[in-house]
Structures are given as structure tokens and as C-alpha cells.
Design a protein that fits this description.
alpha/beta, 7-stranded mixed beta sheet, 4-stranded mixed beta sheet, 16 helices, 19% strand, binds pyridoxal-5'-phosphate
């Protein structure tokens, strides 16, 4: 069948929550993917920040083959070497970026719960916070995106996502992503403070250390758990293992109580993790108070452990920082008409457009063989595989110029 026929058939068979698919893909290799008509695309979105190692990485293929030939699932009545080793690897990367004393403390106290997605990681973190300090409300930032299941959705800001499903199980107060916004919170009855170190869905907006410090202070004052959602920003994407690592304010390290991970954690297998970073968070959920059938099964955890070791071998966080900075410099030097600025970190970047034409531009780029997306009307998000070469990402520049000119032309013609 052709690409158009598959797309039509999709609509007859799948629930329409994702809208009409842009293409039907058959396979990928490295940073590229092909559709059923044989057309090739350069993936500058990485399956929305998931495919850190690109498509069909031979080591991941080998790990999946080997693990599938042993077993893929055993239930959480049991454990496996894969699960324990993956937890050790996750703890190690969660401790990176701090002084050696602090690293040792995190490694000895942190505990990992594997789940199946980012939203589930945040559900677990919310339950952890409610268990640690029962009955309080959650604080989240305006613009936040924490997922679509009901607990995580209660922390997600965008009205069209939330409002049809309100009221939620517990109250959430949304505050401005500013020091004043956080300092204005009434400290009575707060159980959880959620933040993304860099808001991806809101348009690739990094938080400043002062805001993160204010959130830490509020958590200390109220007894709430401070939860950093690193679902999108983590796993090397922002140039460090986790985007918050090394954040200091007034000489003090700002360390969260809980970190949530997913996306790049499993190189494309569905996995998330809720990491309790200290003893208080780690002891909040008791046996039986949370669980998931598939969470942490040997297939996904074998992949998690290999993903992390490969990322270490290839030094992908450092590489993401280098390639991302060089790419943005090239874009700035190219002075592309219609592109006002760039923002973000590592290989999670936003192009800020002069006009609200990002959805049309993303479509035009797709036609030209580049996958990007438009999280806001004037923002193009770039989150390619972390293995991508500068020479590859640079090819976006002439394509961007052409696509912008085409969109302008279409607008003039009223299309
Ligand atoms: N948190 C953040 C910051 C995200 O970007 C996302 C997804 O985009 C989620 C949570 C939800 O993750 P998932 O789609 O795996 O449920």
C-alpha cells in the first residue's frame, strides 16, 4: 500500500487522539527514517526526544535479541540481574555533576522505581509526595507539561488538555515560573512541587537557577517533596546527564527529592523511572502502596542498562552540548529571515520565529524531508538523536530558508 493508503487506513482503525499521521514509516537507520513510499527523512525530533541513539543501533538490537531469547517478563514478585543493574546505572547518572561526597550520598540513598512512561513516572512521584506529606496540594508552574494520565494531567497547565477532565483527585496550584511566583505560594499544606528544568512543551524555555532555588526553599519550608521532571530534558539531551545537575544558587547546590525520567532512558523501548533521591522520599511509599505489572521487566531494563553504558562510551551528554552549541551558532551566523532567536540547551532547542507560523513551517520542512515539530505557534522544537553529526544538522539551514520563503508565499496567496 502507498503512504496515503496507510494513512487513510489508520483513520479507519485507530482512535483519533493523535490526529492524522503525517506519514507511515517502515524503518529507520541512524538519524534517518523512511516511509512506505521510500521517501527518506532526517529526524531532527528523535521521536520527541526519545531516540537518543538513533534508529536500529546495532548494540540495542543485539541487547533486545539476547534478552528476548532468555525472557522478556517475569512479574514483580521476582527480580532479575537486568533490573538491579539498570537501577544501579540510573542511580549513578542521577548522582553525576555534584561533588564526590554528595555523589556518594545520592548513590547510597537513592532508590529507583521503573514504570512504563513519563506520565507514570510523575504519577508515582505524586503518590510518593502525598505519602510523605499527606493531604497537601501540589504546586506546578504555568506552562508545565507532566503527562496525560489523571494525576499527571492535574499538574499539566494547558487548558484544552486539562479542563475537559477536571476536577482532579487533588488540588494543584499553578504559579508563574518566577521567584515572585513561587514566593507568593501559601506554605500551608503543600505536598509536592513539580518543575521541569527546561519546559519543553511550553516552547523550550529554560528555568533560571533563582527559580529552582526558590522552589527548593519552598519545599524545605513546607515539607513538600521537590520533584524535577526530567522526562524530556534528561538522559544527556541538555548536555549533562540531567539538565539540573550542577545548578547552584548562592553557593548552594540545588538537589531535588525526586527525579522522573522516561523518553531517552530506553532508546525507544517504553520505560520510565521515578527516582527517590534521598531516604525520606525513598521510604515514603510502602510495600503494596504502588505497583505496575510491566514496570522494570527484564527486556526494558536490559535496554536501559545498555543505553546508559553506550551513552557513557560515546560521551553523548558532552557531545550533545558541543553539537547543539555549534548548530545554534551556525543558525545565528546564517541570519535566516524570519528566525528571531534560538533557545534551549544541548540538543533540545527551540527556534523562535518572528511570526506565528511554526505549524505551517514544520509541515513545509516535513515535505522537504526534515522532521521537527511546533510546540507553540512561534516555536520550532529540535530534539534530534544525540548521535547526530554537525554536518547533518547543518543541512537544516538551507531547508529552513526555503521552507520559510515558501510559507510566506503561501500566506500571501492566502493558502
Ligand atoms: N513530562 C514531560 C516533561 C514530558 O515532556 C512528557 C512528554 O512529552 C511527559 C512528562 C509525559 O511522558 P509520556 O508521554 O511518556 O507519558
Amino acid at each position: 500500500m502507498t503512504n496515503s493508503e496507510w494513512k487513510a487506513s489508520y483513520q479507519d482503525n485507530l482512535l483519533g487522539v493523535f490526529g492524522r499521521p503525517q506519514a507511515c514509516f517502515t524503518h529507520g537507520q541512524g538519524t534517518r527514517v523512511w516511509d512506505t513510499d521510500g521517501k527518506e527523512y532526517l529526524d531532527l525530533l528523535g521521536g520527541i526526544a526519545v531516540n537518543a541513539l538513533g534508529y536500529a543501533h546495532p548494540e540495542i538490537v543485539k541487547t533486545i535479541h539476547e534478552q528476548a531469547s532468555r525472557f522478556t517478563h517475569v512479574s514483580n514478585f521476582f527480580t532479575t540481574p537486568q533490573q538491579v543493574e539498570a537501577a544501579q546505572a540510573v542511580k549513578k547518572i542521577c548522582a553525576e555533576g555534584w561533588g564526590s561526597g554528595r555523589q556518594a550520598e545520592i548513590v547510597s540513598q537513592a532508590r529507583v522505581l521503573f514504570v512504563n512512561s513519563g506520565t507514570e513516572a510523575n504519577e508515582a512521584a505524586l503518590k510518593m509526595a502525598l505519602a510523605a506529606r499527606p493531604g497537601g496540594r501540589a504546586i506546578a508552574l504555568k506552562g508545565a507539561f507532566h503527562g496525560r494520565t489523571l494525576g499527571a494531567l492535574s499538574l499539566t497547565y494547558k487548558a484544552p488538555y486539562r479542563e475537559p477532565f477536571a476536577p482532579f483527585v487533588g488540588p494543584t496550584e499553578f504559579v508563574e515560573a518566577s521567584v515572585a511566583g513561587i514566593e507568593a505560594v501559601d506554605p500551608e499544606d503543600v505536598s509536592a512541587i513539580f518543575l521541569e528544568p527546561l519546559q519543553g512543551e511550553a516552547g523550550v524555555i529554560p528555568l533560571v537557577p533563582e527559580v529552582v532555588a526558590a522552589a527548593r526553599q519552598l519545599a524545605d519550608q513546607t515539607g513538600a517533596l521537590l520533584i524535577f521532571d526530567e522526562v524530556q530534558t534528561g538522559m544527556g539531551r541538555c548536555g549533562k546527564w540531567l539538565a539540573h545537575q550542577g545548578i547552584c544558587h548562592d553557593g548552594k547546590e540545588i538537589i531535588p527529592d525526586v527525579v522522573t525520567l522516561a523518553k531517552g532512558l530506553g532508546a525507544g523501548v517504553p520505560v520510565g523511572a521515578c527516582v527517590a533521591m534521598n531516604l525520606r522520599a525513598a521510604s515514603a511509599l510502602k510495600p503494596g502502596s504502588h505497583g505496575t505489572t510491566f514496570g522494570g521487566n527484564p527486556l526494558v531494563t536490559a535496554v536501559v542498562a545498555r543505553t546508559i553504558s553506550l551513552m557513557e562510551e560515546l560521551d553523548l551528554p558532552t557531545r550533545a552540548a558541543k553539537v547543539g552549541d555549534a548548530w545554534m551558532q551556525e543558525i545565528a551566523d546564517a541570519q535566516i529571515p524570519g528566525v528571531k532567536a534560538t533557545r534551549g540547551q544541548g540538543l533540545l532547542r527551540g527556534l523562535v520565529l518572528e511570526k506565528n507560523i511554526a505549524p505551517q513551517l514544520a509541515k513545509a520542512l516535513f515535505k522537504a524531508g526534515f522532521i521537527v515539530n511546533a510546540p507553540a505557534a512561534n516555536i520550532i522544537r529540535l530534539a534530534p538523536p544525540l548521535i547526530i553529526e554537525l554536518e547533518e544538522v547543518k543541512t537544516l539551514i538551507p531547508a529552513l530558508k526555503e521552507a520559510l520563503a515558501q510559507v510566506e508565499l503561501d500566506l500571501e496567496k492566502g493558502e
